[in-house]
Amino acid sequence: MTDDELIRHVVAGCGVASVVPPADAEGRSLSPFGARLHAAPVLRPANTSQVATMVRLLRDAGKSLVPLGGATGLVAGLLPSSGTEWYLSTERMRKIERLDRESRVAVVQAGVVLQTLQEAAARQDMLFPIDLGARGSASIGGLIATNAGGERVLRFGMMRDQVLGLEVVMADGTVLDLMDQVVKNNAGYDLKQLFIGSEGTLGIVTRAVVRLRPALERNEAALLALNDLDDLPNLLFRIESALGGSLSAFELMWPDFFELMTGGEIPRHRSPFESGAAAYVLMELEESGAIDSSERLIDLLDGLATNGLLRGAAVARTHADRDAFWRIRNDIEHLIKAMSPLHAYDVSVPIALMTGYVAELRTAVATRWPHSRIVVFGHVADNNLHVVVNGPTETDKEALDDLVYAGVMSRRGSISAEHGIGLDKRRGLRAARPPDVMALMQALKRLLDPRDMLNPGKVV
Amino acid sequence: MTDDELIRHVVAGCGVASVVPPADAEGRSLSPFGARLHAAPVLRPANTSQVATMVRLLRDAGKSLVPLGGATGLVAGLLPSSGTEWYLSTERMRKIERLDRESRVAVVQAGVVLQTLQEAAARQDMLFPIDLGARGSASIGGLIATNAGGERVLRFGMMRDQVLGLEVVMADGTVLDLMDQVVKNNAGYDLKQLFIGSEGTLGIVTRAVVRLRPALERNEAALLALNDLDDLPNLLFRIESALGGSLSAFELMWPDFFELMTGGEIPRHRSPFESGAAAYVLMELEESGAIDSSERLIDLLDGLATNGLLRGAAVARTHADRDAFWRIRNDIEHLIKAMSPLHAYDVSVPIALMTGYVAELRTAVATRWPHSRIVVFGHVADNNLHVVVNGPTETDKEALDDLVYAGVMSRRGSISAEHGIGLDKRRGLRAARPPDVMALMQALKRLLDPRDMLNPGKVV
Fold first, then answer.
1. Which residues of A touch B421 (CB under 8 A)?
2. ipTM for the assembly
């Protein structure tokens, strides 16, 4: 069957709006780093049954399929690898089918945009706690397929922890109905876990039931300057202990990062501190009810300073203060500009071993590439470090990968904390996982997608 | 090979302490309901490598294996079904290998008893939040294999949410090393999820990395009497909203349950209320830091009473008060005595649909069995209802199952909230899950255990 004939079959089954022909699809964004779609058709199903129809038609024609959400991933998870790829976008599947305040669940189609769901929940005094920079384009289906993390994992968990039910179209066109709507559920193997975080290689997420929570009334943010990086685990432990579960962000910035953002002749952002601290932390607590959260935070920080754990602290008095603190942490645009060409890593390391890991990595990189530069920051309380390196060339990339990953693996961390594997980290994954573990991943792929039709070449 | 020869091989490989011969093993407890071990050998490995050796020896001899933890499960998950079963107990694998306060993780062998881990964590000002009545015997391996829930799921999640890393011996003797120690981890398919909640049918859990949290300083408990069951979702929403995440228990008791515990000529437990409320709730909050939790709770309850949502409330002023409240909820011994012979169910239903479900079930059961009696209670905030029925006979069991499950399924709940499937609920599972879903569960079982050697006949 020619591609044109196949397109006609899809149109016959699903309507004319269900296909964007290759010439019109070419150039669509496939990643925030600038990757663009080659001239391949983009299928646009309106519902689950159309997804199933498309999968069957493409399978019979020997095509493969890349599921497409908001295209905000960072590991080349959508780039073609086999040359037979068509794309299947969930952009017409944007319905919030139900938002149930009493049962605290939302039932959504896969294409619903994160921010849309956040705002719909907020209008009913509820919280959907996953949040990340790409909230305006990332889709729920994509967030599930990549098990997204973001800024509040410490308190609310990753995307996996929000999903109560799932509907998945499998490689043979079967619609798997796992749309349960309850938190406690031990009715057989928990099959939805297979698809969460499998990056579209085992099935296509079409609908989901996600958990909502009552909204929190207020947040309080503070910027901390540390005397000594060795204090970090103790500092975090004391803050968490004192706040009893209210802590929702604890973002560590090494001085290289903080000074890049706040230093120089014309600083991008204002620092409330004299320079010279060992590290900086942006922390935030979120609470409700009759508590003076601000007083509580100030008392806590006073005590920590008295104990020598803080060199300084600045508490946000207004929303503008808070936004200014977060802009230091989130000015990734400036980071990319200052560090390009850059190599970026997203790794996890146990808290107690983090500062040692970073120090060791700095030395190793400086020894090998004397003119290189590293900046480090991350969601420390959930183990996640972002490491950005300038200096090593493209040909040095594998050697740099090996340096970054070796220290992660020896500390039983993760070579990919929240971004996933895609095409970019496949080599790293094979080095990080023992052969038996890789073999089981591959066996699952063969079981669920024997023709390697779904997002081929990714992850395994 | 005869059984005696096989035992000699195990002893040669793993030492004389590694086998309890059939005559000595006979009569061991297999369930809190009184099931006992038939005359089968119990293997007692001291470490992972011995588990792998035993699995290979038994596989070659055509035996099957039932992994044995604390034997506190409630769904006949350990009873023999094929007649070829030997048992493998983790009772010699009770080492807490590491308890890391800075990184908030514990690395444990599968046989560690829940209470031992709880207490070890508490000694270092930390919390392992899974808790249930069988804490003194349930093992971490068993809790993982059954994805245990318990009393604090609302706030801290189920066992699945505590597991960061896992070591599993598979049916071919392979040791799968998934012992990562970090919260954020998207390095390929999350294989540990396959084994959590699979009841020992896909692999044998030998070691685990679990997440710990800083301990909470205090709890406050209250007993509430409701005017109207229709208020339940609103009441829960307002309490959760006001407490901003501090709520850690919200146990609903229908009057039949509460009056069984507190009524009669010689009441087992004292009720602080006049009788006649629509339902009763035992709630608890846990907090740390400079907050007057007691005042906060009292203010909240005053407001709810003013709004007509409460008929009465009693706040625990002492530990003895709190214990007395919990004894009403947890006097399962009295419940069993009063209701035997009984049929017990552990189901999940969305919060908004719960009271309707219970009312409908009551009517249906009373119509069919006019002299029956039902009591209902549960961890309502995480959807979990326990339903206990007296009246229908053993021959009525399937008809009763069908009634209980039909209303659960139509509401997209779960026929097994926290107890699992075992042998007891296999028929229910097949009715609750579509054929495609059951087929995928069975395909996973064939992939991971092609000879049906691990806990045969359970779940799928």
1. 186-188
2. 0.97
